[in-house]
From TrEMBL:
Protein name in UniProt: Beta-galactosidase
Keywords: Glycosidase, Hydrolase
Catalytic activity: Hydrolysis of terminal non-reducing beta-D-galactose residues in beta-D-galactosides
Protein EC: 3.2.1.23
Family: Belongs to the glycosyl hydrolase 2 family.
Amino acid sequence: MSFSYVEDVLPGHGALPPRAWYAGSSAASLSLNGDWRFRLSPTADAHDESFAAQGYDAGAWSEVAVPGHWVLQGHGAPIYTNHLYPFPVDPPHVPTENPTGDHLRTFDLPDGWPAEGGATLRFDGVESCARVWLNGTDLGEFKGSRLPHEFTVGHLLKPAGNVLAVRVHQWSAGSYLEDQDQWWLPGIFRDVTLLHRPADCALDFFVHASYDHTAGTGALRVDSDADGRITVPELGVDAATGETVTVPVEPWTAETPRLYTGTLDTGGERVPLRVGFRTVELSDGLIKVNGTPVLFKGVNRHEWHPEHGRALDPATMRRDVELMKRHHINAVRTSHYPPHPAFLDLCDEYGLWVIDECDLETHGFVEQGWRDNPVDDDRWTPALLDRAARMVERDKNHPSVVLWSLGNEAGTGRGLTAMAEWIRGRDPERLVHYEGDLDCRDTDVYSRMYADHAEVERIGRGLDGGPARRRALPFILCEYAHAMGNGPGGLADYQRLFETHDRLQGAFVWEWIDHGIADERYGYAYGGDFGEELHDGNFVCDGLVFPDRTPSPGLTEFKKVIEPVRIDVDAPAGTVRITNRYDFRDLSGLAFSWAYEVEGEAVEAGSLVVPPLAPGEHAEVKLPATPADGRGKETQWTVRAIDADDHEVAWGQAVADPATVRTEAFGGRPVRGQGSIALGPAEFDARTGELRRLGGVEVVSPLLDVWRAPTDNDNGASWQGGERLGLLWRQFGLHRMRHRLVGVEPGDDALTVRTRVAPAGRDIGLRAVYRWIADADRLRLTVSVRPEGDWRLPLPRLGIRLGLPGGADAVRWFGGGPGEAYPDTRAASRVGLWHSDVDALQTPYVRPQENGARADVRWAETGGLRIDGEPDFSLTARRWTSEQLDAAEHLTDLTPTGTVWLNLDHAQQGIGSQSCGPGVLPQYRLTPGPAEFSFTFRELTS
Ligand code: GAL
């Protein structure tokens, strides 16, 4: 028995040539998904092939669900590495310890399965190498995990008792081409289907549907290996295959995904077609669709489900697309492999521009300076070409696919050039993308990842130099805004650049979803949780949605930053400027409304007449006369755009009148008692100057606080230059600041407490003076801070922390909300009157870290206290301390302490995206300097 195919660089043998993928044809089909018998072996050669013979008794085997990954079904364990191969780099060899899953299922042909004709067996995805037998006959073997493979099987089928045997090896030569940053998850993870092939069935076919934007016509031609007729009843099209028909049509775009339903009839089979007319071209140095340059507001999407890994059900795929559309995302890069083909059907239907990426990454070779890189070694070129062809042939009939991507992070080499040439020859009607070649030898777009704002601006202005070919190309960031943990920061700043410079045609957030694995021990597991000897921790959790697809604050922020209508309210002028930021749609489908709010509550509202602006146009629209008197309270205008489904598409807001500041004096006088000092409604410790209670509310005294549990972006990635603040902060001891009491000074009208706050081992410190004043029911604290020493680093935060030992549950605040916001992630935060409970204020980042701050808070009520800030503050409330949050590795490590801890921050350091990308922009940096801020506390009387 030979296992040499496992380490063979060639893609395999026995499979049919690739062709277009489709579902729903008139030919019969049988899904072979379901429970399969399963046996796991530690090596490729542990068992001979006798299990594939008819009559083999697999009664003692266990079972796995197909599609699925055996490591997520109790057999072995997943491994997470970013770019390192989890085995020695010794191509094309793989370890002797090569988990091998034998899969077996029997099936009968359903009633009515035609007696005539042949049959094809299709595997839509198997990781990483499979060998297949039907009824004891060896069909062949294949590699290319996220690509389809078909075998001719009609001659082997029996009406009943067919035995399908599939041997799957976790590691193969193909693994060297699949070093994407994700979990290694072996198994038959996509559908297995038996397709009846009638006489005169459809073979391969290529739908060419272009759009002439000057004439308003579409040209349709379907090239088909089997002759037949094409009908599109709505267009009156009835043509032979190979014939071109030109008719007036509505074009397909991601904003207007107009599809025409048609049929390809080859005599023996009718195949449903969904035709979208559109033309993609590179012209004037820009990517244009139907003559118009497009702006990608994209995400990178890996296939992920927290229980099923990359085995995605149709409902989950639809959920992704619906969530994307609802958040204004208009583009997807299928990082880093062709997705399940049904996902592309959804992209056609809902409208998303797709960069379809080939299943190719050899990133681990970077460790040896790319020596032996398969993409620059002719022996591997057949495998690369096979992958390119399987992607292009499978997906070529999707109007949503506008660019082909050769792969990801595979260095440079002749193999890539060969792929690009083959793709251009086969499909000259789309563009080619690849990020890894700075010279853009093989690509139609200059693509980069994680370039910082300044560089992107230079590129936008054409000041980046570089080879002539590249200078003539449009630019995209195929990855940016690393959405790991809290963040990404700086999205709005990028978007401004994209909208300012034509050459910048948008970007794709890294990435869509956190790949956390549902796990009883941890809630969600990440790298290292399965005892992997090499792993990259929680770097696999860097998405805009949590593993269960709950949107993270990052997605809410992204939605706001890319919203297709811009609404700028100019309160003093009483006008709103509305700008249409769509590329293709006018605004006729939207309804606009205004509301006038007094302290967050709408007191009057109405609709606003906005002309049906064309893409790029704007208009000034008058607001009504200021409706009501706010009686000293803050008032705002909020203007919204709503679509026909009642979804909010865009909003804008401006303060109409700020609140009037109360000017009565706080006349209270500190009074010394037994070990305490009374001031207004408050009681202090006379020795320490610490606040003990306010009326009936017990408190753990407010103290200056500068620490936050570092975010993934604070920590930064090890391979990046620049400051890694999370580490620097620890090095300087900001997580263990000590408070030295300098003096407690009760005066005539104030209690003053002087302190110096500093870490052991350093000379840097912060002088903090707390000045307390009061009247009968209000207590006001003014904190003055003065840094001392050579502060070379920004502060994580600057504010006070106090505890409510009696607990707190409900929180009500007037200020920014409803969600989390930090200085560079606050576009989506709008001023309003918000309610939450303490638990709901927490953002459940898979690895715990600073989270949940609400920005621009004017006042808040919780735990029996009302707190007014002057100026506005940032509010955080949690049932554990920052230190506990910092120590936690998983959400399950966080246990409530009984006390609710409030951080009232005058300022916070921005977030940035240095977990893989640029740090915090200078304007969002919290540089130590003299500061003063106040809070007024009052006990709430119910
Ligand atoms: C990129 C890579 C992605 C992912 C990302 C960081 O370099 O293409 O696959 O690793 O960095 O999360």
